[in-house]
UniProtKB/TrEMBL annotation, chain A:
KW Transferase (keyword) present: yes
Pfam name, any one: GST_N
Record-level GO BP terms: glutathione metabolic process
Protein family according to the UniProt entry: Belongs to the GST superfamily.
EC number per UniProt: 2.5.1.18
Functional description taken from the UniProt entry: Is involved in the conjugation of reduced glutathione to a wide number of exogenous and endogenous hydrophobic electrophiles.
Domain GST N-terminal: 3-82
Name of the protein described by the UniProt record: Glutathione S-transferase
Species of provenance: Rubus argutus
UniProtKB keywords: Cytoplasm, Transferase
Automatic annotation (TrEMBL), chain B:
InterPro entries referenced in this protein's UniProt entry, alphabetically: Glutathione-S-Trfase_C-like, Glutathione-S-Trfase_C_sf, Glutathione_S-Trfase, Glutathione_S-Trfase_N, GST_C, GST_C_Tau, Omega/Tau-like, Thioredoxin-like_sf
Name used for this protein in its record: glutathione transferase
GO molecular function: glutathione transferase activity
This protein's GO CC annotations: cytoplasm
Family to which the UniProt record says this protein belongs: Belongs to the GST superfamily.
Domain GST N-terminal: 3-82
Domain of life per record: Eukaryota
Any GO BP: glutathione metabolic process
Keyword Transferase tagged: yes
Entry annotated with the keyword Transferase: yes
Catalytically driven reaction(s): RX + glutathione = an S-substituted glutathione + a halide anion + H(+)
């Protein structure tokens, strides 16, 4: 029986991009449905009644929500190709720990940069860079976060790279100047076809934020 | 090779108790290390430099932090008494509800113990717990016939923490009128043969809550 895979998403969402990236890594064919967050579709409300958010993966009619949970699901179902999580339990725990760290900290710090000015914005920028520096420390000299192979933790973070241009423009600062190793890692990831085709155009992200926040 | 398992914990914390429940259910021996949160040891700060919190599990010298991450690690390392189901879709559902409890229910419940806008906080908490109750349906536990991942993550709700806080603070959240099925589940939870030996001493917990949340003289 053929698999039916549908993704409810938003082009600029770094969370949605994680799912697109995981599907691309695994070579899974799917139907993409762009949502308008101001008028959410009946399908979205039905498939994610608890949070009413994207991304939602619908696999043979059954919905899975929350981007990192979806990525793990994809890894477990399409397990014969491109493993995303390492096989060692300790390495897996580290990947989950750092992905959780990114989810707890990065978006809110970035939002402060976009939506505030003056001292508050400076505080947001400082916080944002501090978080990236911790991640840069975790990366060390490895090509990817878990070692030689691109995987789960790279997926969790690389999608934020498409928002860096917007953060830099709105915050008037250079992320590369502060975190050169991290940018080097990001550019390495972007050389992968799955990454470059799954990430949104940074200019479109910027335009979206200007409209959303009325800047 | 001998297994060396250490757990940095706090006696009253639902977060570290989750880890203890998982270890006990799987029959894993461990060394318990009580942490003084007012005076964190160098060892804790070395094992969890990012968050500086408990619980931290140290397995053969390697630390793992964040209780839900630790639970998955325990489930993958010690195969007896599986906590997560085998089926990928069921696993995704379990992870979803664990996240819902952690990121939505827990903060909402803590807000109810605060003094700001308590009525609104209680209303919100009840709505969230209703969603959780709907997920339970007619199952004995979230894990089905036996305790699983979601039950353990919901320990604050199922154990005595919520019941005692709500009585001391004087709010009604988890009641038989509001949430009959969830109440029934919480009775099963506290009476489970392994869980009941692994809850914090109730009188000590109540005394702590009275100091922290009780009416001020």
């Amino acid at each position: 029986m053929a698999d039916e895979v549908v993704l409810l998403d938003l082009y600029v969402s770094m969370y949605g991009m994680r799912v697109r990236l995981a599907l691309a890594e695994k070579g899974v064919k799917y139907e993409y449905k762009e949502e308008d967050l101001r008028t959410k579709s009946q399908l979205l409300l039905q498939m994610n009644p608890v949070h009413k958010k994207i991304p939602v993966l619908i696999h043979n009619g059954k919905p899975i929500c929350e981007s990192l949970i979806i990525v793990q699901y994809i890894d477990e179902v399409w397990k014969d190709k491109a493993p995303l999580l390492p096989s060692d339990p300790y390495q897996r725990a580290q990947a989950r720990f750092w992905a959780d760290f990114i989810d707890k900290k990065l978006y809110d710090a970035g939002k402060k940069i976009c939506t505030t000015k003056g001292e508050e914005q400076e505080a947001g920028k400082k916080e944002f860079i501090e978080i990236l520096k911790v991640l840069e420390g975790e990366l060390g000299d490895k090509p990817y976060f878990m070692g030689e192979r691109f995987g789960f933790l790279d997926i969790a973070l690389i999608t934020f790279y498409s928002w860096f241009h917007a953060y830099e423009t709105l915050g008037n600062f250079s992320i590369e100047a502060e975190c050169p190793k991290l940018i080097s890692w990001a550019k390495r990831c972007m050389q992968k076809e799955s990454v470059s085709k799954s990430l949104a155009d940074p200019k479109k992200v910027y335009e979206f934020l200007v409209v959303m926040y009325g800047l | 090779m001998g297994e060396e398992v250490k757990l940095f914990a706090v006696w009253g914390s639902p977060f570290s108790r989750r880890v203890e429940m998982a270890l006990k259910l799987k029959g894993v021996e461990y060394e318990y290390i009580e942490v003084d949160l007012q005076n964190k040891s160098d060892l804790l700060l070395k094992y969890n430099p990012v968050h500086k919190k408990i619980p931290v599990l140290v397995h053969n010298g390697k630390p793992i932090a964040e209780s839900v991450v630790i639970l998955e690690y325990i489930d993958e390392t010690w195969k007896g008494f599986p906590l997560l189901p085998k089926d990928p879709y069921q696993r995704a559902m379990a992870r979803f509800w664990a996240k819902f409890i952690e990121e939505k229910c827990m903060p909402a419940l803590f807000k109810c113990a605060g003094t700001e806008d308590r009525e609104k906080a209680v209303e919100e908490a009840c709505e969230l717990l209703k969603l959780l109750e709907n997920e339970l349906e007619d199952k004995k536990f979230f894990g089905g016939e036996n305790i699983g991942f979601v039950d353990i993550v919901a320990d604050f709700i199922g154990g005595y923490w919520l019941r005692d806080i709500q009585e001391i603070v004087g709010v009604k959240i988890l009641t038989r009128e509001n949430l009959p099925k969830l109440c029934e589940w919480s009775d099963e939870f506290v009476n489970h043969v392994v869980i009941k030996e692994n809850l914090p001493p109730r009188d000590k917990l109540i005394a702590y809550f009275r100091t922290r949340f009780g009416p001020k003289p």
